[in-house]
Amino acid sequence: MRGPAAVLAALVVLVPLGAGADSSVKILNVSYDPTREFYAAYNVLFAKYWKAKTGQDVTIDQSHGGSGAQARAVTEGLDADVVTLALAYDIDAIAKAKLLPPDWAAKFPDNASPYTSTIVFLVRKGNPRHVRDWNDLLQPGIAIVTANPKTSGGARWNFLAAYNYGLRSNHYDDAKARAYVAALYRAVPVLDSGSRGSTTTFTERGIGDVLLAWENEALLALKEHPGEYELVVPKTSVLAEPPVAVVEANAEKHGTTQVAAAYLDYLYSPAAQALACTYGYRPRNNAVLRGCTTKFAALDLTSIEKFGGWQAAQARFFAEGGVFDQIYQPH
Amino acid sequence: MIAVAAAPARRPRPTVRNRPNAVPAVAIAIGALFVGGLIVVPLVSVFIEAFSAGAGAFASAFVDGYTRSAIALTLEVAAATLVCNTLFGVLAAWTISKYRFPGKALLQSAIDVPLSVSPVVAGLAILLAVGVHSPFGGWLLRHGLRVAFAPPGIALATMFVTFPYVARELATFLQEQGRDLEEAALSMGASVWQTFWRVTLPNGRYALLGGMLLCNARAMGEFGAVSVISGHIRGYTNTVPLQIEVLYNEDAFAAAFALSAALALVTIALSLLRNLAEHRARR
Amino acid sequence: MRSRDAIPGRALALGTTLTIVTLAVLVPLAIVGLTAAGMTGQRLTAALLSARALAAFRLTFGASFAAAAIDAVAGSYVAWLLVRYRFGGHALLDAIVDVPLALPTAVTGIALATLYGPNGALGKILAAHGVAVAYTQLGVGLALTFVGFPFVVRSVQPVLAALPAEFEEAAAVLGASRLATLARVTLPLLLPAMLAGFALALARALGEYGSVVFISGNMPLRTEIVPLLIVTRLEEYDYQGAAAIATVLLLASFALLLAINALQRRLIAARGRA
């Protein structure tokens, strides 16, 4: 029978992994795609802080992927202690699965978003397509790289930023905004499952003329490939607030509630805010923002509230049969 | 089952033609060129890329904590897979070679099914069978055993994909051997169990070893099926092939190829050993 | 009464074997089909007949057939070399044939993607001649040819080696040229084995994932193979959509293998009659 075999396999594998002593603790942070570098650095910072404060050694395991896919994975059994995702709807989905309380956004300051970001364009050196703003994305023959809104959080911010432009440049005419995004997505050759995948497609595989990206992703690409790309900041974009939450059901089961809450709390500390800044995330702490070496461009940012909040936006645009499904035809 | 291909790869002696003309040389050169271009060049490129950043970078790839976890997980999963599939393989080989029953060909075809199933479909099948939403998965979860997105699920998916190997190798060999030895032992008063342990198993030990080596090599290299069910948690549910993908996607090319070179060396060595075992079995 | 030469334990052994095979192999695959069966006709149509799905099926089947066909020819050729000739490096060539089987698919994948990519050693040379391999259907075909190669060689080798030399010698005595002998005597005898190898290579190619996903570029309607489409649906947690596509792939693969098997049996039977 497969049952005993599975148990045998589980024992062979889990027993060595299972031992948990009081002097050390392990938590799993399920995050969205572009945050690998940031959390790698933050985990070191937090471990040092926690050791000094409590004497306990903490190991943080990371999982990265498209925000929507990650949230779904958690509801399907991915054993996250904390989630640090791209948008509130994805954490709401986990709340709906009763793994954390519905008022999770009130547990940490600023709607449980320790930093913000926005959507910008990354273009190739010299900006050969002369992309300055959203309307330049409709040039004939241009190829635009963005991720799959069904799985990626960044991709949904991308879509909304584009739709937002479509609205504002057409006197808030929904039909015209739809026509704009439909035309834009006709120019997309491939949808990766996460924002990091999109960046790789654009930079490593050389596909596309413009990458619609998280600001932090674009800044990272500039740092890692000096001289090859340029950042183009459109006049308008969305205010993205990537939120965080403790997955209370899992944390209680693992006995990690205290360290998990502290892990997320520490994101608001000046040290962590400064770290976020160096990785291209806009810190909430204004003092840190002013003193930051990364200079963030000023642009007109629209919040999700203009779309009626994430529940309404997800249902209208990204649910099965929604606006995205209606306009997206790969070709 | 495709009858001809059922026989595992043999190494027949070449029949020598004593015709010293240029045609063989040219023909062989063409063949060598094709095989060289198709297979050797990519294989060699793995090792070249692995050392492209120097020997120091090669070594440091194996110091990374996530890589080490991946190696440990791969070894554990391969071990569990080997145990389970060997137990089944021995049972199936015994059943097929020592008994007469209707539908034998059908049984052999059923055992071979995982060979023609896409690894992605295999992973999907396991996910649907033991995932959180399935009845069985839900039951397991209530009893504290998480299977999908955890190492047990990876083990199950790997077991599915490598299911036929031991059974095929051993069954083919034992079928060729016939039942004479066993019948003789039984007629001399040995029990079935004794016959199996003292006669059948020693007789087939090299074929069994060959099957186990093949199963192990395939298990360590499995990618598609594991990718579907793993959850890709760094340090917990990434096997070596998955870790290679992670490194590659993060542009850590030297590390990705270093790990690839190591894994390739192991699986190729296992494959060569398996050929030796097979050779030994047929002597 | 039990016949004298029956080995005891048949019921237990057979019963246990059947149970394990059913639970380990047949039930999980059945669940895939059942999951798909729960879809409404409209959703099923959307999942299987969308432009994207059809393009994926076309690419997977087309590229797999082409790759297996190339393998059938090249693999038989190399099998011929290995059986008929002795030469320095014979053992090496023999061992190299197994490499695509032994090499983990992810390693194959990144090796091919890097080698034939825009910055790769071979990719650059080919690009200079206007040939793009990476992120094209050509790249998909190349990866599939790579992984299917050993199946043909190992199918043809033993059969070729076991061919009685009398047929070819008789043909030579009767004055046939080597080429004619090859075409009229050897090849027909080898056809079943070549078919078997072709079928194995084809089956492998249809389901191949790791070797292909790195070099293909994964662009819908252009270079997206069926296994990748399944993974994409899974990432979107569209289990039913994934199961539907997987079921079609399973059924098509089985049907193909059965057909080739039947063809093979016909050939062997026809030869027996001749």
Which tags fit this structure?
heterotrimer, A: about 325 residues, alpha/beta, D-Maltodextrin-Binding Protein, domain 2, 4-stranded mixed sheet, globular, B: about 280 residues, mainly alpha, MetI-like fold, 15 helices
Question: How would you summarize this macromolecular structure in one to three sentences?
Answer:
The complex is a heterotrimer of chains A (331), B (283) and C (274). Chain A is an alpha/beta fold and 331 residues long. Chain A contains 15 helices and 13 strands.
What does this 3D model show about the protein?
The complex is a heterotrimer of chains A (331), B (283) and C (274). Helix content of chain A is 46%, strand content 16%. Chain A has 331 residues and is of the alpha/beta class. Chain A has helices at 2-18, 36-54, 67-75, 88-96, 109-112, 153-168, 174-186, 195-203, 215-224, 248-254, 257-265, 270-278, 286-291, 309-318, 323-327, and strands spanning 24-31, 57-64, 82-84, 115-116, 119-124, 144-147, 191-192, 210-214, 229-232, 236-238, 244-246, 282-283, 300-302. Chain A has 2 domains: 24-116 and 241-291, D-Maltodextrin-Binding Protein, domain 2 (3-Layer(aba) Sandwich); 119-239 and 299-327, 3-Layer(aba) Sandwich (D-Maltodextrin-Binding Protein, domain 2), CATH 3.40.190. By secondary structure, chain B is mainly alpha-helical. Chain B has a single domain, classed as MetI-like fold (Orthogonal Bundle). Chain B has helices spanning 3-6, 22-50, 55-60, 65-98, 104-112, 119-130, 135-142, 151-161, 164-177, 180-187, 192-203, 205-221, 224-230, 240-249, 253-281. Mean pLDDT of chain B is 88; it is low at 1-8. With 274 residues, chain C is an all-alpha fold. Chain C is globular and about 65 Å long. Chain C starts with 9 loop residues before the first helix and ends with a helix. The model of chain C has no long low-confidence stretch (mean pLDDT 89). Classes of the chains: A alpha/beta (331), B mainly alpha (283), C mainly alpha (274). Chains in contact: A-B, A-C, B-C. Chains B and C meet through helix 1, helix 2, helix 4, helix 5 and helix 6 of B and helix 1, helix 3, helix 4, helix 5 and helix 6 of C.
List the helices and strands and how they pair.
The complex is a heterotrimer of chains A (331), B (283) and C (274).
Chain A: H1 2-18, E1 24-31, H2 36-54, E2 57-64, H3 67-75, E3 82-84, H4 88-96, H5 109-112, E4 115-116, E5 119-124, E6 144-147, H6 153-168, H7 174-186, E7 191-192, H8 195-203, E8 210-214, H9 215-224, E9 229-232, E10 236-238, E11 244-246, H10 248-254, H11 257-265, H12 270-278, E12 282-283, H13 286-291, E13 300-302, H14 309-318, H15 323-327
Parallel strand pairs in A: 1-2, 1-3, 6-7, 6-8, 10-13
Antiparallel strand pairs in A: 3-11, 4-12, 5-8, 5-9
Chain B: H1 3-6, H2 22-50, H3 55-60, H4 65-98, H5 104-112, H6 119-130, H7 135-142, H8 151-161, H9 164-177, H10 180-187, H11 192-203, H12 205-221, H13 224-230, H14 240-249, H15 253-281
Helix pairs in contact in B: 2-15, 4-8, 4-9, 4-12, 4-14, 6-8, 6-13, 8-13, 9-12, 10-11, 12-15, 14-15
Chain C: H1 10-37, H2 41-49, H3 51-84, H4 90-97, H5 99-102, H6 105-116, H7 121-128, H8 137-162, H9 165-173, H10 178-207, H11 210-216, H12 226-235, H13 239-273
Helix pairs in contact in C: 1-13, 2-13, 3-8, 3-10, 6-11, 8-10, 8-11, 9-10, 10-13, 12-13
